[in-house]
Amino acid sequence: MSILVIGEALIDIVSSAGSSDRYAPGGAPANVALGLGRLGADVELLTDVGDDFHGGFLLAHLRESHVRVHARPTGSTSTARALLSADGSAEYEFSLRWAPDASLVGSGDWAAIHVGSIAAFLTPGAAAVDSLLQRGRDSSALLSFDPNIRASIIGDHEQALARFESLAARVDVVKLSDADADWLYPGQSADAQVDRILRLGAKQVALTCGSEGSILSTASARVRVPAGAVKVRDTIGAGDTFMSSLVHDLQSTGTRFEDMDEVMLTDLGENASRRAAITVGRAGADLPWASEEGA
């Protein structure tokens, strides 16, 4: 059985002081699908791209990483301008659309379904997200969600929080960054943020905290996994690498969440951190292949 990823694929236009713009394939869910394909998973991506040069480039890029893409190309491909700061972190400006054709995925069952980022919040495509998540719940697929908050385009805080919590209540795994969590739940500690998401119904929460590492938690076990020392080229794709690693490892092992102890959670976090370190050490969302040392 395959893994279905649902969400945007777009072109990152990377800008930094003193350099020419660099164009690269991106979109958080597309990056997760790409990462899964490179780790050897059987993966499909439901997305929305244009029939322009950028759309063709995206489709070829994903297929080279063994992703089966479901899209009906038309119009212009979405873009995200990533503005890099001196420390390699990025801020984004978007030109987007999100209207996938859910009928393209057919009636198959999946071992796991991952949804994420802008596509989880924007209409009309959010309806496809909800429909396919329900199919996953009905078939007992592993369900995961990464909100990858982009505050400038997902609506006001109250509406976005309600949508986030609605989705978090329906999935098994929620992964988010500390910046996401602080935007959703300002003024709360990391542990309080994790506790709140677990109370919504998620069975596992992973909170990434940049150079400070990550927190992985179920209702009965919680660990803090330090980040390894790494030379950062840029942080584009780091969180997506962490997410793809979690989905890959959870789907591969099939361990029940209620049976996970601190050792199992630590292994998950260390694998994800090691893979993310490879990504941040090179330009753009260039996620690791299983054949690479340390992947």
The percent range for strand residues is: 15-25%
**Widest sheet: strand ordering:** 5-4-1-8-9-10-11-12-13
Instruction: Let me know the average pLDDT.
Output: 91
Helix content bin: 25-40%
Identify the overall geometry.
globular
Give the low-confidence spans.
none
Q: What is the CATH domain class?
A: Alpha Beta
CATH homolog superfamily: Ribokinase
* Class of secondary structure makeup: alpha/beta
Here the CATH topology equals UDP-N-acetylmuramoyl-L-alanine:D-glutamate ligase
* Domain module tally: 1
Question: What is the β-strand count?
Answer: 13
What is the rounded distance between the termini? 23 Å
Label the CATH architecture. Answer: 3-Layer(aba) Sandwich
What is the helix/strand order? Answer: EEEHEHEEEEHEHEHHEEEHH
Return Rg in Å.
17 Å
Major pleated sheet: 9 strands, mixed
Polypeptide structure, described:
The chain has 8 helices and 13 strands. The chain has 295 residues and is an alpha/beta fold. It has one domain (8-280): UDP-N-acetylmuramoyl-L-alanine:D-glutamate ligase. The longest helix is centred in the last third of the chain and has 19 residues, at 262-280. The model has no long low-confidence stretch (mean pLDDT 91).
